[in-house]
Hints:
Elements: E1 21-22, H1 23-29, H2 35-43, E2 47-49, E3 52-53, E4 60-61, E5 67-69, E6 72-73, E7 82-87, E8 116-118, E9 126-132, H3 135-142, E10 150-157, H4 162-166, E11 172-174, E12 177-179, E13 183-186, E14 195-202, H5 209-216, E15 220-229, E16 232-233, E17 242-244, H6 247-254, H7 259-264, E18 287-289, E19 295-297
Parallel strand pairs: 9-15
Antiparallel strand pairs: 1-4, 2-3, 2-5, 5-6, 7-9, 7-17, 8-9, 10-14, 10-15, 11-12, 13-14, 15-16, 18-19
Amino acid sequence: MTKSTPKNSAPDESESSEKGERIAKLMARAGLCSRREAEVWIADGRVSVNGKVLTSAALNVKPGDEVMVDGKQLPTAERTRLWLYHKPIGLVTTHKDEKNRSTVFSKLPKNLPRVVSVGRLDINSEGLLLLTNDGALARELELPARGWRRTYRVRVHGRVDPDRLARLKHGVTVEGVSYGPIQAKLDESSGGKANSWVTVVLTEGKNREVRRVMEHMGLTVNRLIRTSYGPFQLGPLESEAVEEIPRHVLREQLGLKAESDEKENPREGWARAKKKPAGPNYKRKPTQKSRAGGVKPLRNPGK
Length: 303
């Protein structure tokens, strides 16, 4: 006969294989932090379940368990949401910076919920950055196994060898780090100039991958713009502008269930998503930044 756990007692951390959801994943889905940050918070003693302070993230939380973070009840997870953000140069993609530099998250509109980024762009890079209130979704979209292509427009200084660029499709190793296949093509209009534009497409997105590969080829990157991430395009979105992806597009691209289904179990979130996107690339209406920090349709997109 199996001994049952009293309703108001904390779950036994050794029972993490039973049904439920990992505490770090639940915190990320609630939009409080990323999974990694949640693990740090737990180690710092900031999280309790049914009155017991946790010391390990190896715990599954079940329906009815009371989760407290910093003495406050864990908020109910919102439906999964995703935003496009045009990151400018000069911002770091982190919530807190040890050097007190300006961050992406400190510059976002105040009416946005707490969000995490899908991957990062370094301080000197600009362009498309995806933001979501679902930490589990962010982690999933970052994985190279998903196969989502990231496209960059890269301005380089130096003599570009088109044949050498083409050979990057077989991958390259730079200072002991192996990079997967990269599609790189010199723009036809760049021939003979000191600065040339190169279009780069990759699926891994390792730390400073584009810059390191270009440097390996004797080229100096002096501008780097991400123009797409998977099916989502930067398009005419102005610098620092934010635009939410419509709900129906999320369902098409990520396989999310209909909203009515989510209301029945709001904590499901990304757990109900499929592994592969469906449908064509997301095509947005031309937009511009509004005075309030949001975006609105351009009246004359052709001008």
